[in-house]
Amino acid sequence: MSNLLPRDVKRAIILEYHIRVASMWCLVMAAAFVIGTFLFAPAVVAVATESRAVSSEMQANAESANEQYAESLAAIDRANMVAARLARDTTTFTVTDAMREVDKELGSGVSFEGLTFIRAEDGTPRIEVQGIASTRETLAQLVERLKANPYFLDATVPFGQLAQATNAAFTITLTLRPTPR
Fold this sequence. Notes:
This protein is α+β, with helices and mostly antiparallel strands. It has three helices and four strands.
């Protein structure tokens, strides 16, 4: 029957057929796209939700790491300050040096019995020297010589120990210089 149609009409029918087939394929593709969108929408929402959760968790971890870093930095700063203070305030001479200096200043009439190292609450190093002086004048002279010694900032003896005229037992507290002159 198509053979009976004129050639122009036959071409018009074939063109219309191809247009209808192409339109159908476009409609089928559009329908598949719409159905696919509806099928993948929950997955997109789930991925977005998980992404936000992971992002907020990473941000919380970063803030926690920043806080730990700040705390560590503060602890290091405190340790550096303590180390600097120790380096500044530490004496550079040994126990032997201190004993030698005390022994050098003793002179005649004073006997040396003991030496005790003390670190005061403020961190100042001190030495307590115990001994016996033949007279109170000898003890007073010893205290003056120890005060003049460059290794010691101060030398003090309790006033009551100067009351005994002869054979006076004493304890002199010497404050050490951070570094000798």
